[in-house]
Design a protein that fits this description.
The protein is built from 17 helices and 22 strands. The protein has about 500 residues and is an alpha/beta fold. The protein has 2 domains: about 250 residues, Aldehyde Dehydrogenase, Chain A, domain 1; about 190 residues, Aldehyde Dehydrogenase, Chain A, domain 2, CATH 3.40.309. The strands form 6 sheets. The chain has a 7-stranded mixed β-sheet, with helices on both faces.
Amino acid sequence: MEKYLKKYQAAKMYIDGQWRDAKSGATRTIIYPFDQRQIATVAEGDVADAREAIAAARRAFDSGEWAATPAVERGALVLKLAQLIERDAEELAALESWDTAKTMEESRWDMADIAGIFRYFAGLADKDGGEVIASPIPNTTSKLVREPVGVCGQISPWNYPLLQASWKMAPALAAGNTIVMKPSEDTPLTTIKVTELAEEAGFPKGVVNLVLGAGPTVGNELAESVDVDLISFTGGIETGRKIMKAATSNMKKIAFELGGKNPNIFFADLVEQDFELAVDYVLNGIFFHAGQVCSAGARLIVEESIHDKLIAAVVERARTIKMGDAFDASTEMGPLISEKHRAKVEGYIKLGREEGAKLVLGGGRPKDPALQKGFFVEPTIFTNCNTSMRIVQEEVFGPVLTVETFKTEEEAIRIANDTTYGLSGAVWSRDQDKANRVATAMRMGTVWINDFNIYFAQAPWGGYKQSGIGRELGQMGLEEYTEVKHVYQNHATEAANWFGAK
Ligand code: NAD
């Protein structure tokens, strides 16, 4: 797997169809979170590089050629990119695992998803023929057309680096926009690689641009620049607030996918009937990718009568989760992304104890000598939690599960909704009427009934409340990247004679 890193020892940015070093000459070292080994060196751009990329995207958009390219041709290019991603899926998966230390198995799934996302938006590119509106005025026609928004700044996070980038790149390009992509500074490799593939696919110069660098410099410039028409951001809520403020410079459109603190509600009937299934999905909900998932089921909300039995089994199974190297096929859970992030997660574990939550598993770092260089935190479970606790309200983004109990359906709903987030959640019951009532009452952008963490290109994804603005994926994910124009034509115009004509 090391062989894939060779190309990335002096990786560049892609601006106006050219691979470039940072104007300042600065570089950043990328590390493997499992053992902190240096795996790559990439250009570290700043505001000056961001400005050049924005200017290139502006020229490419304003020339009109790309937006006027027939949608079927844009779709064909996006499809070509999907095929190239499929061709190089193993290399992309390895790069994603090097960057994030998530298991190769997970990274391989991600790459299959990502190719599917480009395929889906390639297919949508030429489906919109506008709409005819029934004009109320005789002898006129009225139609609605969707046009690209323009220059799109796109900022992605480190937890699903290329997956999150693909949710932005694919619809933006299919709709005829030009883009400046900025991946997380911690995990740029797969986004660099996919930009190479976009070049190979043959996107015109200036349509796809990639700037590498930090959020407060490069990211902020994308958010603030008056030459950017739309900023799409996936990341934490505090960063979202900053970007929203910066975006007021020109009232650019904003599309936000922020955090979540997602309830996973289990009714006793299901747990009693399908005990192993319930245990399995509690574990999958929170410990997958070490909990670094915006839709992680970090809040287990369980009917009181079944709490003790379920928690005892979940704790026993969580205790055996195998932590390790992303490239070891037996690894079930990797480390956290960075020292800084581990400190944040450990801070929350300390806080949970102080708030009176009962620690029933984990809470520390693994003792295994082989794991000491990685940013590992043990699978951690707190019971006796309630919604007045910060450990329940705030996104920990680590392998930390909080457990709350309820006695009635109404109480389950009230507890689940008692958060400022509204990204996703699940309800588990074999009583389908009850499950549907609860799903209807949950104030979240996605609700799963008897499943968890399912998303696909065809269905929209996004948050209620402070979990986001707008939707990615699905038809709506394409529409985010379009402006709507109403075109009205009078076929028998008569003088208005308003200003005194005789
Ligand atoms: P983050 O907010 O720290 O960073 C995300 C991106 O924003 C990075 O590229 C970073 O460089 C950039 N950034 C940082 N400061 C900036 C600024 N001032 N201006 C512009 N850009 C800036 O988030 P993260 O830690 O990389 O990712 C984790 C967060 O992402 C979690 O909160 C998670 O819930 C969220 N997330 C949400 C979804 C979703 O679909 N809703 C998906 C994945 C991750």
